[in-house]
Write a structure and sequence with these properties.
Largest sheet: 7 strands, mixed
Order of helices and strands: EHEHHEEHHEHEHEHHHH
Strand content: 5-15%
Structural class: alpha/beta
Helix content: 40-55%
CATH topology: Rossmann fold
Strand order of the largest sheet: 3-4-2-5-1-6-7
CATH architecture: 3-Layer(aba) Sandwich
Number of helices: 11
Number of domains: 1
CATH superfamily: P-loop containing nucleotide triphosphate hydrolases
Shape: globular
């Protein structure tokens, strides 16, 4: 079972889009995927059309709950989800006086039946707080979606430093499985230049697959479907299916 933190502290980078649609694409490839929604905005939860029940994943952090008890089937082939809730807004305060808060999620994932899923994708919030650190400590790998905009490159250095710190202090096995360029508008020189800069700076860490700007990708959350279900012949679906194939080959 590969546990992957989908991380970028910048909002709008494509974390949830990648988490939801990569999971669905992996499911199309007959893999079993568990998505863990750690974002108080509940975007991944809503995208799959799941109504938050009670505290969701917050109960795991604050009430010593079990992940297995809150797994929900999404109705998408091969994909389950642990939903978020608005309670996550208060998680920093709830854990303020706790010891070892960085390892809560890792301990809970270790309790899961490892043969039940092939992948766990953790959709992280757009901040390097306690939830994101928990994801990095629990994960084997980091997947970094990056918007094809020059301003998006600035935060990558900070994220890499954070990964290095977590690797040195809390999770020596953590690796970066790759960086994926999202919202790439092939019609603009700017987007192409950003992808070129990514490849120059990070080399083979950057996936060959890029996620092209696609109106269908923007529409499908409103219909509570991943792109592979909403518009299976769209460029968005083709890109995420290609990313899934490449992602599987890059396994540890």
């Amino acid at each position: 079972m590969r546990t992957v933190a989908v991380v970028n502290q910048k909002g709008g980078s494509g974390k949830t889009t990648t988490s939801v649609n990569l999971a669905a694409a992996l499911g199309k490839g007959r893999k079993k995927v568990l998505v863990i929604d750690l974002d108080a905005q509940m975007s991944a939860t809503a995208w799959y059309g799941i109504e938050p029940v009670d505290k969701g994943v917050f109960a795991v952090f604050a009430d010593n709950g079990n992940l297995t008890d809150i797994v929900v089937n999404t109705g998408i082939t091969g994909v389950d989800i642990i939903p978020a809730s608005s309670w996550l807004v208060g998680v920093e305060r709830a854990l303020a006086n706790e010891v070892g808060t960085e390892t809560i999620l890792r301990r809970k994932i270790e309790e899961l039946e490892s043969s039940r899923w092939d992948f766990i994708l953790i959709d992280c919030p757009p901040a390097l707080g306690i939830l994101t650190v928990n994801a990095l400590v629990a994960a084997d790998e980091v997947l970094v979606p990056v918007e094809a905009h020059v301003m998006a490159l600035a935060g990558l250095a900070q994220l890499m430093e954070t990964v290095d710190v977590v690797r040195a202090r809390l999770n020596s096995d953590l690796e970066i499985s790759g960086i994926v360029a999202c919202r790439v508008d092939a019609r603009t020189r700017h987007a192409q230049d950003v992808v070129t800069q990514l490849r120059e700076h990070f080399g083979e860490l950057v996936f060959d697959t890029v996620i092209r700007e696609n109106v269908r990708l923007a529409e499908c959350p409103s219909f509570a479907q991943p792109i592979t279900e909403y518009a299976p012949s769209s460029t968005g679906a083709k890109d995420y299916l290609a990313l899934a194939r490449e992602f599987r080959k890059r396994g540890k």
